[in-house]
Amino acid sequence: MKKKHWYDNLWIWEIIYFSLGFFNILFAWLGMIEFLLPLMLAIFGGNKAFCNNFCGRGQLFQKLGTKVSRNKPTPKFMYSKGFRYGFLAFFMTMFGNMLYQTYLVAAGANSLKEVITLFWTFRLPWDWAYTAGTTIPWVAQFSFGLYSMMLTSTLIGLIVMALYKPRTWCTFCPMGCMTQGICKLKAK
Hints:
The protein is mainly alpha-helical and about 190 residues long. It is about 65% helix and about 5% strand. β1 (about 115-120) and β2 form a beta hairpin.
C-alpha cells in the first residue's frame, strides 16, 4: 500500500479555489500559486516535483477519473511535441491577452468587464462575485481573466479525463510543458 503524505489531498485545494472564486472573484489571485510554484520548483529544484506530487488539479482528475473516465488510451498526438508546445503557445497567447486586457483597464482605456470567458469564447456574466469599489479595477480585471483561464483549463482537463485516462490533461498541461523545458535546460 502506498504511504500517505500530507500533499496527497491537495485535490481539495482545487475545489476550494473554484468555490472561493465563485463567491468572490478576488480569490482568483490565489491561482497565481499554481502558476508560480511549479516554475519555482523547476528553476530552483531542477525537477517536476509540483507535477509529480503537489498538483491538486492532477490529483482531482485522478480521483474523479477512477469513477467517470472511460480509461481509453490517450491519443498519441497529445504526447507529441508539436501538440504540447502548440498548446503552450496558444495558452501563453491567451495569458498575454489577459495581461493586455488588465493593462487596458489599468490605463483607463477599457472599463472593467465582470465576465468569465469559458474556452476563450463564451462570456458568462459573473457580476455577483464582485462588488464595485472593493478594489481598484485592474486588480478585479486580472481576477476575472485568471479565473477564466483556470476554469477553462480545468474544464478541458475534465473533458479529456472523461474521454481518455484520468490524467490525460497532464500530457499537454502548459505548466507541465514549461517545467519540463526548464528541467531539460537545467540538466544540460
